[in-house]
Every structure is written in structure tokens, then in C-alpha cells.
């Protein structure tokens, strides 16, 4: 069998082979060669089918024919015909699905092999109307890629049925068509694959670009994190973030405002600005409120970032550049702020990716901002703690010193209390010094008073300072009394005199001397002996009376020696 | 039955009871000293009449003793050096009691000369009176603690 599949048919026609047959065979071969040559350069299935139909109907002398290519999966395909009316062709195209199911249903059961070209029995086809009228021959075949083909031919001009040679030619042509169509389908498939490949390459390129963009974004975010993470100084953090976010989207200007309402503080960082705009806490509040009011989805959730839909509301005195992109963000309930970017350095507006990218960077920035603020708070707390510790240390040192001092003072106090107690006890007790002082004071005051007072008395009896009076012994005195040459005078007080006195004695108490003298002694002769007695341990009355009598010119005055006691000892008379 | 003596004892030993006695004794001695200071001659005679003091010391005693009584009485009234003052008063009372006892035993018919010179002759009631005063002095010495100027001052220091 050759490549065209002629061998079976040549075997069948070998018995009648003659010169005429050979010419016919040559004709057929030339036809096949021409068909093969003609179809080999065509890759469009439609054109292949047109050419094939033309080159099939001509040599066979057939005036009507139709051929088609059916996708067995989709039941769609191309149909082309010659010698048919347009309505017949349209009907054929409309019924292509039903025709395909009718013809190629056997393929599922394996009746139609992929390598065979089957000539279909037309019984039943005429009644169903799936084929054009006057169809005498129908051939179907399978193609690669799930396609099937068919060829329907009408009657020959000679009105004779197709003989074996015609059928062999038809098989040969169909085989060429099948091969060409397979090739064309393969080419088309390759073209489709190429197109798919190009499309996929384009998609891959777009994906890669998207991936590169995302990688860039991620790298930028990573760089942002790497740059911001070690920064704990709030101002440096703001400046660094602003530089990175403007650089990532190609913005030439930008600024950042943070308002901490809890601490009544605000921070401003600008890029591409000559000076900071004049700001106050109230202005910051109004600024941030305008930004919040212009947000599309207003949220005060911590860590939220909202785009300001109308960035022009962020214009403020001192901001010279036009604001093209703005964000309002919230760190927590008391800390919030705005980020504003100027136009891109290169012409063009911010894309949605840029907006998302800036928002993503801002979200990352909020984390580090919160950390930095927390770090500042911790630093403040640490400073306060250090100061408190220092104060506490000083306080403890002071307390320790005070405690030591208190201990010393308590000891001193206890000592003082003890001394005071001892002194109090000592003072509470009678003291010899008190006696001495009282006696000394009484002596001094008494002496001074006695010295100054008119009724003062001498410190010692004057009799102690005077010369002693002459004395007379009791016996001698008794004799003088008995002789009547003397008078005896009792100088003691009257009580003592009345208690006991010498018999015949005259009582002249010193306290009543003047009266008693006048009464009893004034008429006495001054030379008359006067014997005076009366003394005891506390008073020498006799000496005093003798002194006073001598003052009254009584020169002969004697004191009884030993007094009344000596008189009694001598057992002299008393009464 | 036991509560009554205990209460009575508590009142008898109360510092205010001692204060009353202290003021009484102080006033008594201040009063007694007035006459003696004013009339030293008569007081010297009174001293001499006891026949106990040597004649050369009578005048000196008549000068010093009244002022001693006066100072001790004042100290006792104001609570200054009260213990010492009451001791000196007690000593003087003992001295007076001894003198009175000796005089009574010796039968010397004199007045005691305690407040003025024109007194009735002393008797054993005089001795008992002085013994009562001596008991008062002992009570003051033992229980007196109220309204003492120096004690108040010292207690304030001690409380601090």
C-alpha cells in the first residue's frame, strides 16, 4: 500500500487493466499529483476545502459537491460547496451539528478508525434532509485534533455512477485532503499554540512586571522597615519616613503632621519646603479635622489609614506646593496625623497602585511611630524613674542619716531625761544646800532687817561685852542681909520670882525696871549695898540689873556669886 | 466594808489634801513670823524664857529664826523646794516640841511665844498642837505633789 492508500482499489481493477485504463490511471495520478501539489502549499482549511472540492469535482465530472470540517467536540465547523445554492449551503451549515452527530456517532463505537476514509451509505439521509439534494456519494474521515471531515458529491455529468476508478481517485484525493487538512490543522494548531504562547508570554511579562512592582513595593517596605526600625527619635523618624515615601512614588514635596492631643503636642516634618509653616495646637486640630472630614471611609480605629479624597483641603498657610495626595491616619485615640504629598516629579498623576503603596507604607510607618512614641514615653518614664530613684536614694540616705541622728538624739534625750529625772528627783528631795541657803538667807535678811529696824536688838547680849560686876558669896551676902547692910534684888521675871526666890528679895524685872526702881529702890542710899541675883543659861538678868543700877548712881552693887543655885546649895533660906 | 477605808485612805493621802495642809502650814509659819520679826526684843525674851539657848545665842536666834520661818512658809505656800521647806518646818516643830516638853517638865510657867508675847502659859495642849502640826508636816512631806511650781516646770521638761 502506498501513501495514498490506492493498493486495495488497484487490486480490484487489475483484471480489466488495458491502455485505456492506463491512460485513465495516469490521468488519475496526474490529478492526484496536481491535487497534492496544489493543496500542499495551502494552510487555510477553508481554502484547502475549496481547492480540494474544485480539484475533485473537475476530474470526476461532478457538478455539485460540498465538503466540510467539523469540530467533533463543539459540533461546529466550516462548510464549502460548489454547484449548490446559497440556501442549501446555509441549511447545511445550520444542520452541521446534527449531521456531525449522525455521521460521526459511529466513531465513538470504533467503527470509524482514525486512519480510514469511510464511504457512508446514503440510505436514510435523503429523508432527514441533512444533505443537499441529489447527493450520491458521502465520505467521512477523521482528522487530528478531534476534527472530522466529510465530502458529499452529486451526480456525474454523465449521469453514470462512480466506477471503481472514480472511487479510487476519490479515495486518493480524499486521502490527500485528509493529509493536507491534518497538516493545515497542525499548522493552525501550531499557530494557535504560538498565539497562545505569545499571549501567555505577554501575560507572563505583565505578571512579571506586576511581580517586579510588588517586589519593589515589598523591598521598599522592607527598606522602610529597616530604616525606621532602629529610629527611636521621633523627628528623625518623621523625616526618614517622609523622604522614603516621597522617593518611593517620585514625589518632590511632602509634609507630615502629628497631633498628640493627650500631651497637647504636635510635630511637623516637611520635605522640599524652605521653612515650617506657623502652627499651633488649635491649627493642627483644625487641619487634621479637615483631613478627616475629606476622607472617604472615616474611621478612628487605631492604626487606620484613610485617603483624603480632596487633597486641596490640606492646603495651609506656609505650604507653597500643590498637594496631590493626602492621607489621614490614626495611631490611637489621642494621636493622629496627616501625610500630604506634592505632585510627582515626573509628569503624571498618582496611580491606584501608588495610593495603595503609600497607604501600605503609612501603615508600616504607624507601627514604628507608635513604637517611637512609646519609646519616648518610656524614656520620659525612665528619666522620671531615674529622678525618682535619685530622690528616693537621697531620701533613704537622709532617712538613714536622720535615723542615725534620731538614734543619737534619742540616746541624748534618754540621757537628758535621765539627768532631768535625776535632777527632778534630786530637786524633789530635801537638800542640805536648801537648808544652808535658807538659813543663810534668813540670817542675812534678818541681820539686815535688824540693823535697819528701829527696834533692832544687839547680836549678842551687851552684858557679855561689859566688865563683870563685883560678886559676893552667898554666905557673905546672907550676913550682910542679916546685918541690914544690904538689900537683895531678884532680877528675874515675875513668874520665876514667884516660883521661888531668896527670902527678903525684892523683885525688879528688867522689863519693868523703871517702874519697879521708882517704887522700891529710888529712896535707897546710893552707897547702900545692893546684891543682885537671877540668871540662867539664857539670861544674865543680874548683870544687866547691876549695870542699870550703876547707871542710877548705885556704886555698891554686887552680883550674888552662883546665883540662886549657889544660894540653895548653901541651904540658905528661900521662900 | 473594805471600800470605805480604802476610799478614806485615798482621800487622806490625796495630793490635794497635802496641798491644803501645806498651805495651812505655810500660812501658819508666815503668820507666826510676823510678830517675831516685828518685835524681836519680846521674841528674844521668849526664847530666853525657855532656858535652853545659851544667853550669847538668844539674840542671834531671835533675829534668824523668824526669817527662817517666814522663808520656809513662803516656800511652802508656793511649792518651791517644798520638801526642804517642810523638812525645816518639821525640824523647827520638833525643836519647839522638845523645848515645850522640857519647859513643861521643868515646870517653868511661861507662854510659848509662838504668835505673840502676851499668851497664856503653855500647857500640854500646846505640845499636842505642835505634834499635830508636825504630823501635818509629815503628811505634806509624804504626799504633797500638787501645785508645786518647780515640779510643774520639771514635769514639763520630763514630759518632753
CATH architecture of the largest domain in chain A: 2-Layer Sandwich
Helical segment tally of chain B?
A: 7
Strand order of the largest sheet of chain A: 2-1-5-4-3
Integer tally of domains of chain A: 3
What labels describe this entry?
heterodimer; A: 575 residues; alpha/beta; Beta-Lactamase; Oxidized Rhodanese, domain 1; five-stranded antiparallel beta sheet; 16 helices; 53% helix; B: 160 residues; mainly alpha; 7 helices; 78% helix; globular
Description of the molecule:
The complex is a heterodimer of chains A (575) and B (160). Chain A contains 16 helices and 15 strands. Chain A has 575 residues and is an alpha/beta fold. Chain A folds into 3 domains: 186 residues, GAF domain (Beta-Lactamase, 2-Layer Sandwich); 152 residues, 2-Layer Sandwich (Beta-Lactamase); 107 residues, 3-Layer(aba) Sandwich (Oxidized Rhodanese, domain 1). The longest helix of chain A is centred in the C-terminal third of the chain and has 77 residues. Chain A starts with 6 loop residues before the first helix and ends in a 6-residue tail after the last helix. The relative contact order of chain A is 0.05. The N terminus of chain A is likely disordered. Chain B is mainly α. Chain B has one domain. Chain B is globular, with a radius of gyration of 18 Å. Chain B starts with a helix and ends with a helix. The model of chain B has no long low-confidence stretch (mean pLDDT 85). At the A-B interface, helix 10, helix 11 and helix 13 of A face helix 3, helix 4, helix 5 and helix 7 of B.
Amino acid at each position: 500500500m502506498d501513501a495514498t492508500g490506492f493498493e486495495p482499489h488497484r487490486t480490484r481493477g487489475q483484471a480489466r487493466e488495458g491502455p485505456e485504463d492506463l491512460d485513465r490511471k495516469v490521468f488519475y495520478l496526474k490529478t492526484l499529483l496536481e491535487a497534492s501539489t496544489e493543496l500542499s502549499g495551502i494552510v487555510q482549511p477553508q481554502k484547502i476545502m475549496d481547492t480540494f472540492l474544485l480539484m475533485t469535482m473537475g476530474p470526476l465530472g461532478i457538478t455539485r459537491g460540498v465538503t466540510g470540517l467539523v469540530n467533533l467536540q463543539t459540533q461546529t465547523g466550516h462548510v464549502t460547496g460548489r454547484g449548490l445554492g446559497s440556501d442549501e449551503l446555509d441549511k447545511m451549515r445550520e444542520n452541521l451539528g446534527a449531521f456531525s452527530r449522525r455521521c460521526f456517532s459511529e466513531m465513538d463505537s470504533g467503527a470509524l478508525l482514525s486512519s480510514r476514509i469511510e464511504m457512508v451509505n446514503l440510505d436514510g439521509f435523503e429523508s432527514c434532509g441533512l444533505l443537499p439534494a441529489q447527493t450520491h456519494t458521502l465520505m467521512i474521515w477523521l482528522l487530528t485534533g478531534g476534527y472530522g471531515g466529510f465530502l458529499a458529491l452529486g451526480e456525474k455529468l454523465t449521469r453514470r455512477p462512480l466506477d471503481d476508478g472514480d472511487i479510487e481517485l476519490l479515495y486518493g484525493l480524499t486521502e490527500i485532503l485528509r493529509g493536507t487538512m491534518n497538516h493545515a490543522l497542525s499548522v493552525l494548531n501550531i499557530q494557535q499554540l504560538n498565539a497562545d504562547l505569545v499571549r501567555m508570554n505577554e501575560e507572563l511579562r505583565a505578571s512579571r512586571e506586576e511581580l517586579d512592582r510588588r517586589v519593589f513595593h515589598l523591598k521598599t517596605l522592607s527598606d522602610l522597615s529597616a530604616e525606621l526600625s532602629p529610629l527611636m527619635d521621633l523627628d528623625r523618624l518623621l523625616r526618614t519616613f517622609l523622604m522614603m515615601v516621597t522617593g518611593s512614588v517620585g514625589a518632590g514635596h511632602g509634609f507630615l503632621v502629628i497631633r498628640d492631643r493627650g500631651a497637647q503636642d504636635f510635630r511637623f516634618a516637611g520635605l522640599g519646603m524652605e521653612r515650617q509653616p506657623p502652627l499651633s495646637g488649635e491649627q493642627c486640630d483644625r487641619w487634621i479635622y479637615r483631613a478627616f472630614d475629606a476622607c472617604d471611609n472615616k474611621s478612628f480605629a487605631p492604626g487606620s489609614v484613610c485617603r483624603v479624597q480632596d487633597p486641596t483641603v490640606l492646603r495651609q498657610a506656609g505650604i507653597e506646593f500643590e498637594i496631590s495626595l493626602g492621607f489621614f491616619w490614626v495611631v490611637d485615640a489621642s494621636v493622629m496625623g496627616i501625610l500630604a504629598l506634592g505632585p510627582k516629579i515626573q509628569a503624571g498623576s498618582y496611580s491606584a497602585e501608588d495610593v495603595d503603596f503609600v497607604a501600605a507604607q503609612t501603615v508600616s510607618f504607624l507601627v514604628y511611630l507608635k513604637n517611637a512614641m512609646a519609646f519616648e514615653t518610656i524614656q520620659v518614664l525612665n528619666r522620671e524613674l531615674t529622678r525618682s530613684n535619685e530622690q528616693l536614694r537621697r531620701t533613704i540616705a537622709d532617712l538613714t542619716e536622720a535615723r542615725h541622728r534620731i538614734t543619737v538624739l534619742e540616746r541624748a534625750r534618754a540621757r537628758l531625761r535621765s539627768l532631768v529625772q535625776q535632777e527632778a528627783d534630786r530637786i524633789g528631795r530635801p537638800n542640805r544646800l536648801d537648808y544652808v541657803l535658807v538659813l543663810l538667807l534668813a540670817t542675812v535678811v534678818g541681820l539686815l532687817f535688824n540693823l535697819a529696824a528701829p527696834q533692832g536688838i544687839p547680836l549678842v547680849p551687851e552684858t557679855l561685852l561689859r566688865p563683870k560686876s563685883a560678886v559676893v558669896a552667898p554666905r557673905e551676902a546672907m550676913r550682910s542681909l542679916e546685918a541690914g547692910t544690904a538689900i537683895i534684888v531678884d532680877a528675874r521675871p515675875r513668874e520665876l520670882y514667884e516660883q521661888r526666890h531668896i527670902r527678903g528679895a525684892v523683885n525688879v524685872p528688867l522689863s519693868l525696871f523703871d517702874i519697879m526702881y521708882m517704887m522700891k529702890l529710888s529712896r535707897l542710899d546710893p552707897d547702900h549695898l545692893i546684891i543682885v541675883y537671877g540668871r540662867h543659861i539664857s539670861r544674865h538678868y543680874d548683870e544687866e540689873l547691876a549695870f542699870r543700877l550703876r547707871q542710877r548712881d548705885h556704886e555698891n552693887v554686887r552680883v550674888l556669886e552662883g546665883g540662886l543655885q549657889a544660894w540653895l546649895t548653901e541651904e540658905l533660906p528661900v521662900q | 466594808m473594805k471600800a470605805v477605808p480604802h476610799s478614806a485612805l485615798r482621800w487622806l493621802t490625796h495630793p490635794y489634801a497635802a496641798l491644803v495642809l501645806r498651805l495651812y502650814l505655810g500660812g501658819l509659819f508666815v503668820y507666826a513670823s510676823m510678830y517675831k520679826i516685828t518685835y524681836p526684843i519680846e521674841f528674844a525674851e521668849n526664847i530666853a524664857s525657855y532656858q535652853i539657848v545659851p544667853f550669847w545665842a538668844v539674840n542671834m536666834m531671835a533675829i534668824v529664826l523668824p526669817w527662817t520661818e517666814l522663808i520656809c512658809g513662803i516656800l511652802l505656800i508656793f511649792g518651791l523646794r517644798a520638801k526642804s521647806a517642810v523638812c525645816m518646818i518639821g525640824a523647827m516643830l520638833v525643836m519647839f516640841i522638845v523645848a515645850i516638853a522640857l519647859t513643861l517638865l521643868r515646870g517653868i510657867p511661861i507662854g510659848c511665844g509662838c504668835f505673840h508675847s502676851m499668851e497664856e502659859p503653855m500647857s500640854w495642849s500646846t505640845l499636842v498642837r505642835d505634834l499635830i502640826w508636825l504630823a501635818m508636816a509629815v503628811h505634806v512631806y509624804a504626799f504633797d505633789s500638787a501645785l508645786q511650781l518647780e515640779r510643774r516646770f520639771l514635769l514639763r521638761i520630763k514630759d518632753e
